[in-house]
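Troubleshooting entry. Yesterday's outputs looked truncated, so today I'm pasting the complete records for two proteins to confirm everything comes through intact. If either block looks cut off, that's the bug. Protein one:
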Amino acid sequence: MSFTTRSTFSTNYRSVGSVRVPSYSARPVSSAASVYAGAGGSASRISVTRSASFRSSMGVGGLAAGMAGGLAGIGGIQNEKETMQSLNDRLASYLDRVRSLETENRKLESKIREHLEKKGPQVRDWGHYFKTIEDLRAQIFANTVDNARIVLQIDNARLAADDFRVKYETELAMRQSVESDIHGLRKVIDDTNVTRLQLETEIEALKEELLFMKKNHEEEVNGLQAQIASSGLTVEVDAPKSQDLAKIMAEIRAQYDELARKNREELDKYWTQLIEESTSVVTTQSTEVETAEMTLTELRRTLQSLEIDLDSMRN
């Protein structure tokens, strides 16, 4: 059991005119009492704190005014002595009052201590739970940090998956566009082949027509020669020798065939090169799309694994 009492008094002097006037003050008087008791492994603590403060001071302004008036009215040293004596008497009465209040305070504190010692509540000692509480708090903090890290990883995986999904969709659209271009080119090649077949058919028809006209021409020439021979007339035509139509047609046909062959070779070369370039682009994009699909699959697996870990930690 412990009990402390402290009282402090101070005296200050202030000057009013040519007279030093004391100013007294009683600072707070405080007391504290604490009681410790324990039995059978349990401990109880009772603490009492009571403070009473008394302060009496004489204002400088009011005292100065009063003193000035008294001095002005009386104007003598005797009045100053009487004033000082009055102040000393008042100080003594204040000190007596403080002592009586301290005595009453000690009595009240003694009664309070006795009352608390008899009827004070029992306080259980929870100190041995603090270590467990701190450990649990540390575990909760660690789990919270792990959960935040896992959530961050999941968010990063989702963002990466979204990026790869966008890239996959872009590559897929490009692939479909290239496939559409290839389909259009194949259609153009088919149309070109049809046109080539039509031209070959027309060439064959022209060849047949040429043979037919040549045959008719020979028949007409033979008929005219027979008529001339039967009439016995000799007809000499002073005209330049006609050119061989068959030779001319052969030359024209050869030139046309050569031109058609060159055009066909150039067209085949152009479309072959275009198809090879398109096929290369499609192959490259197909490889990139497959790589993106594989990466997306891996990210989905990672995301599922992280979600499973998060669910298990939450449970």
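Protein two, checking that the full record survives here as well:
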Amino acid sequence: MYKYVRPRNFYYGLLIGLGLFILSVLNRGISRHADLPNNVIRSPVVGDEVAFMYADTHQGLLLDDGTNHPPAAFDLRWQESIKLACTLEQTELPACYLLNDTDIFVPLRSIETAFELVSTVNLQAKTVTVRQTNVSIPLSKPDNHYATGSYMFFDQYDVEKRHHVKLVLADEGVPLSTQWSQRAYPYPIQIAQFGLSHYSKWAALTQQRTHSSTTSTSSKAVTDVDLLDSKEPYFVRSLHLSLDDRPTVYRFSVGASSEGLLAFAARAADSKLIHSRWRYFVLSGEDWHEGSYVKLRVLRSASNPSSWIELIYACGNAPPLPSQNQHYSISTDHRTATFWMPICANASRSKRSSVSIELARDLLRDLQKVFGQSLWRFESTLTHSLNEDNDGLIHVELVALYAGAHGPDGGGLIRLMRLGRPSSTESPGLTEILFHTSRFISAAKWFLRNQDSDGGWHIPVARQFRERPTIEPGWVSAMGQGQGISLLVRVYNYTKDMTYLKSAQRALGPFDRSVAQGGVRSYFLEQLTFPWFEEYPTRPGSHVLNGMIYSLVGLYDLSQVSPLPEVRKRSTQLWHSGLNSLSTLLPLFDSGSGSFYDLRHVTPATADIKTSRITPEPSLEGRSIHRGPNRARWSYHALHIRQLRLLASIDNDHAVQWSDTASRWTAYMNGTRSPHN
């Protein structure tokens, strides 16, 4: 007979056995770690997930007791971590850790600088991303380039946003730079890029607007408003506003009341503009007199009408105050910024007729340039409280025109006054297109007014260049000449005004003159078969790569557009001579892991140039490390790649070389290195 075990006794035995097993495991764990040294730490494991965690400090996990423990292990087992003392190139690092006798943990932040790495940590996703660079790697497809179309990738540029742009002048409509001087000045390269950027944006928006008008008839969000449209209920006319005998032209003049001669206010509850936000203000007029101005009142907080700030664009000269400058003034209460237009004032004094006024203002950039550095709180208000969508739009409460007291009638004519905003998915508004048009035309007009008789646009500040004598004021840049030509060619195509094309043709002059003669041409190692067009005209030449290619693009653009055979021939000859030199010297710019910015390490300063004018550099072990190769940072390396791909699309003779080099340099951005010996 079989004796059955009673269930109750069976369960008791099972529980006792399980308890003994658990005690045995715990005893082994305790005895295993009882004799571990103090620097051995048991690493935690989080559930069934990978337990590797990485704090923002890149130095492990900061526990409640204030100790800094290493990261958890990669697998699901309990691990032991041994603290190690570690050094990197004779520099002591924060503690490193050994796990599993094989895996070594080193604080990533400690080696980021040494190995030029960029890391990002996402604790929520439990991921760490380590890259060579935080610069976007250029696509293999080249930027489309047409001599009269968008310029490279410049539709993505926001020149006004750059920290060394002081402001955009109200009367001339071009940026002033502080790049090489604390005193703001007009920098031809920056003005050319400003114009090319706005031209490229205009070209893209025009194409988008045409496409939208033919493919969609649905209602779109309001992207702009015509402030001179009397049919709109939110536009308030003054009794002093009268229609001129010319159509669509309004005259504002001094009358019984000089307050708000032409104004709109978004205060009424039924106004379409009460909650509207804008970015661009465009005004066109003529015959303004000294003292006339246009005023915009904007709100720092839409919910607080008392938080207003006023932007004024005035036909006049800045007052001679020691704390102000000649371009704008700020009131003592920091409520009002006045942008001065001295050209308008001087013209009205000399009684010149038909002085045109063109304003194309980016309200956000004007506010940032005037108030941004001193009131970052205002900047945060703009991007959070005032702009709920962080889109850079500004609440405009009031726009008003005021007539000056000078002249027989004061005031002047106004043909156009609009507010607009950037387009997103909808069709671009007319104001946005007019804004970009006005800006690239203003830049081109600056090049007409400021071209010297030798064809150059001379730069009025000194340029300190490492391992070279200081470049004295009055120098000419091949990059500035080339990009100036590219802008003028496009504006000529837009306006059909030969004045712009003639200016572009005269700009070839410095390419034929040596640096010693005030031009931009140098020769690599004094070999006449290798001419180079210098961005910075040093002696000996510096051979900056990106500036050379930009100058070549300008020569190409002119050769494609000029209707004059002799101009096409001359620009084509310069273009081909530059390409041949670039083809020969391009391998010298390859570092095996990136590219060089220039070739100063190949063409060092000669003995007679090593004078006291060159500032001594700090030395390392008796050598000046600063005399070594000038590696291009990743943003410039990416630019080199894009430039080479562009050349491959317009230069068939060297297309294979340009493409192969661009592909290899792209691989460098992914961590690839050239082979060792």
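Both blocks look complete. Sanity check on protein two: Residues 39-131 form one domain.
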